[in-house]
Amino acid sequence: METQPKRLRFIYRWVLKGRLDYYGNLLEPGERSFLTRFFFKRFGLARIPEPTRNHLLELKQKGNLVFALKHRSRLDFILLHYLFLESGLPLLTVSAELGSWIFFSLRKLVNYFFTWLIARLNFWGQYQEEYWQEVKKRIERGESMLTYLIYPPRFTTRYLHPEQDPLYNLILWQEESEKNLIVVPLVIIYSKAPEREERGLVDILFGKVNEPGVLRRIYNYVYLSLTEGAIVEVADPVNIREFMERKDQQGLNRQLLTHRLREHLLGHLEREKKVILGPRLKSRSQIMTEVLQDEILNQELEQIARDEERKLIEVKRDAARYLDEIAANYNQRMVDFLDLVLTWAWRNLYNGIEVDESGFEKIREIAKRYPVVYIPSHKSHIDYLILSYVLYHRNFFVPHIVAGINLNFFPVGAIFRGAGAFFMRRKFRGNRVYVSVFRTYLKILIREGYPLELFMEGGRSRSGRLLLPKLGVVKYMVEGYGQLGLKDLYFVPVYIGYDQVMEQGEYLRELKGGKKTGESFLALLRARHLIRERYGKIYLNFGKPISLQRYLEEIAQTESKESEERYEKLGYQLVNEINRLTVVTPGNLVALGLLASAKPARKLEELKNCWGWLYQYLIEKEVRLAKSFENNRDWYEEALQFYQAKKMIEFILDEESVGQIISIAQENRLKLEFYKNNIIHFFLPSSLTALLWLNFKSSKEIIVNYKALKQMLKFDFLWPEIGNEEMEVKTALKFLEREKEAKAELAKNFAGPCANFLESYLIVLRTWLAFSEKETSEQEFLARALRMGEQYLKLGEIERVESISRINFQGALRWLEDENWLSQQAGRLIINSEAKPQITEKLNWLSSLLSGITRF
Fold first, then answer.
1. Which domain-ending residue is among 696, 726, 749?
2. Which pLDDT does position 223 carry in this prediction?
3. Using DSSP, how many helices (H) and how many strands (E) does the chain show?
4. Which residue numbers in the chain have pLDDT < 50?
5. Fewest C-beta in 10 Å: which of 369, 451, 582, 687?
6. Shared-domain flag, residues 703 and 819
7. How far apart are the first and last CA of the chain?
8. Is the CB of residue 633 less than 8 Å from the CB of residue 748?
9. Sign of the C-alpha dihedral, residues 202, 206, 207, 209?
């Protein structure tokens, strides 16, 4: 500033040494006053998540960054100043409109005070103008400014003197600059507890936790920053140049543009906050009241009372009782408690969680605007916990989970209910009151904007394969969406996989015909030995979100609105996407190779060839592979060591070649079958084609028989495409024919993984022929099939113990029913004795196909 002051000239010359460039809003990165040191020591738990930091660094490459908070706060500024400094982000030195002088050293504070006093008495307008020029220079050289979108004391100043408004100046500077200016809204979260609709006395007096008054803000920093740690997240950034060039902004003056930019940024902040904290939380009683007062529900209850000739009060009493059984009771303290327990559990039980980080950004963008329903695969009880845990640690609001009523036992039921689970009965067909209440509860949750989580398979997969979808709850969601008239709702497929599931012993017992053990507190105590083992890694992938609005628009062009097929197609689209997301681990591929042969032992060198072919096939199909495959030529070594440690395989010295032989006991084949089945869907077309290639010469015969096998196995596997059989066969044959010298060996290794399923069907067909009675129960049929399977294995008429599977037999029964070779009436299986010729023909056909890999 070249102008000499007329007043306080002595201070200007002798104290300030002729300088008037001390500004109360600029905090240098090297400032180490008492207050900065005090706060910096207390910010140890505060953090900017790594994905957020990387996102900011990417934005920095696109232009100069300016940051925005919703409310003014010097404490928020000093926190961000510290975090940006520690994280290697652009230096945050400017606190627009809100002085940071409180953090100055004493000497600098004195200089600033005298500068401010001289400027105020002599040339205040010029001083302010030069302040904004200094801010502009700092932004141009890569430093950052923090501005506050809501600042009541500056409301009049911004209106009368827009040149003092930071956003106004940013628009002005963008007009003059070729480099982009990007405004990044920031959300500082002190507590992940969602905001409640009812405000307590503390909230009224001191403000909400995440929108605090002065006293509560001090409490946040003194207490919460020491115990929980603040988290900084980024809302959608706004490129000012692009904002100004939008059609709806053309012709507006700068002041109006500034107003619209501020409103635009506030909208981004609110949407980001909703992703992290969820919608405003209503109490359990509020939600239940809104469900029971729903107009459509009450019309349905009145109709039920008339149809069943019951008193309306009795029907309503049932409705209230069912709702109390169903409804969640979200409690942030319970979520925080579970977070502590699960953090300990994952560290002690698993070797890490591999997560598809890129999927979070897609979900975050959707969750800002629309309700989200997560659709995970279901192989373990851990699924209920792991998805919520991962979302919570990526700063998403945890979803409300549709859980089976079997989990509502002491103390697990109360814990899950407090973490957002709500319970559904396994069977309620014919109970119209229950259906109406459950459907309405879902609708209210969707209306309120709660994210939901639904296991579409209905129950855990005991076989490792993805189960066919159960569509009832999806149907209720689609109906609720239609009644609410929402803009959209998104389904997000999620794959959850494991190196080893904790329930392996339980699944083996059920596959052999044992009864399912009910969940209870005593069962939980008996299972405590499970926490003494380690189970490898967990894998989690997010698929392409499916817009319900877009799906219904597409389906409306081909189906009537009342068509049940629209639910079925949606369900299969979701589960096929989950199948596509499957992460292939070394353990999966090793298990598939080990079970390709029925022999109790194979030479390691033979297996290496097999694994090499299988791996190459996956590479060509561009399947997702676990990180364990990266830069690791001998990827199978890790899996072999894991299975050896779990006593599933045994190494034997090959005396002939001084190599190694891998031996598998029969009971361990059943354990490995689960992990083979995790990825069998990738190999199914090539496996069936290889088996047929060993039996038929012409491609026409192979295609005809391939279609027949695909039709037969449709209740066991999810086929992504129907009618594409010729292309599937040609693709598989092309891969098989690349090996000129070892073509038969390659074909047998590929054919082996599907052989046990065909043996299962062979057992069921022979069981059908063995029944002299015309009717039986499904339980008796399955029990007899299990006994006959054991008999055939001992006689050598089947070769694979894993073919003696209750789940495989159930798929075969559904196929027989679909072919009208048996039917169900009043819970009984009716055997169609006239189908004996067809059954015999299918039996001979399967026996002939399997002969191609006998004794392999």
1. 749
2. 55
3. 37, 22
4. 201, 204-205, 224, 227, 521, 525
5. 369
6. no
7. 92
8. no
9. negative
